[in-house]
Amino acid sequence: MTMSNKNIIALIYDFDGTLSPLPMQEYTVLPELGIKPADFWSDVGKEVQATGGEDIITYMRMMYERAEEKKVHIDRDKLKAMAPMVPYFEGVEDWFASMNDYIKKRSNDKIETRHYIISSGLREILEGVSIYKEFHNIFASEYFFDHHGRATYPNRVITDTTKTQYLFRINKGVEDLTKSINSHMPMKDRPIPFENMIYYGDGLTDVPSMAVTRANGGHSVAVYTPGKSEKPCQTLFKEKRCDFFAPADYSKGSDLHRRTLLILDKIIASILLQKELDTLG
Ligand SMILES: [Mg+2]
What percentage of the chain reaches a pLDDT higher than 90? Predict the structure, then answer.
């Protein structure tokens, strides 16, 4: 594969706090179980302190334990069916087409756009959200469902640090999760260079992904809930974890939209320049 084949731009998003205000469980499973989110997360925190367990595995275990206690059957279909309760930040639903159109026009149809989610939340819920069709792929934590169809065990756990594995899967074009990501692949053979990526996240849990993306020449963006403090994002910016930060308003003309287009201009120009140089042999 020559440089000129690297004509894909990947926009990669965290989900909770980035595309949607709160953790997805707070709109779905927790109300279904009649549990107050603050109580649940505080219990998870105590359990982590008591057991030294990993946060994500602990919350996944405690969620199906609570479902058992409450005699609520949680299967794959039920999780998917609860997904429409998950709201988005302003402009999210129109964002994807807007980005696709911009890149298409700006590159004379020479560059393809892909959107990805990498989330510690639940794949089964994300499969049911209305924007699911906008994504080339979604990487998220998953439950194992037993022979009764009940969620009884974590099947895949994505934490803040393991998120970075999926950036490399996108980078190397190894999105089949049964395939190992670790074998060496020369940079020139990787279909989506980090330079062509923008990673969107909302806080400290995104630091490993932001750092890996930027250290490899890519871009990252920090967002915060409009009306809430911009301080955490400002800190990420000062520490050079992100290229810029903005309120999580995805509508046309917002700071987030406008600044994203500026980064895209830079990525598009660099891909087109490389294509031009490649014709020189
Ligand atoms: Mg988040």
Answer: 94
